[in-house]
Design a protein that fits this description.
This protein has 50 residues and is an alpha+beta fold. The chain contains two helices and two strands.
């Protein structure tokens, strides 16, 4: 748990690195996944559709 020392928060390096992915990280993941699926679908339609 973080402690306060003269108006400063003192944490270990492991505690300082811990964080929760916010909505921007989730949006980036969703958009990049959608683009990857779109690119793979286009490649499949262009090259492998008979």
């Amino acid at each position: 748990m973080a402690t306060r020392d003269e108006h400063r928060i003192v944490e270990t390096s492991t505690q300082a690195r811990q964080g929760e992915p916010g909505p921007s990280v989730a949006a980036l993941l969703a958009v990049s996944l959608g683009l990857a699926i779109l690119v793979l679908a286009v490649v499949w339609f262009v090259f492998f559709r008979t």
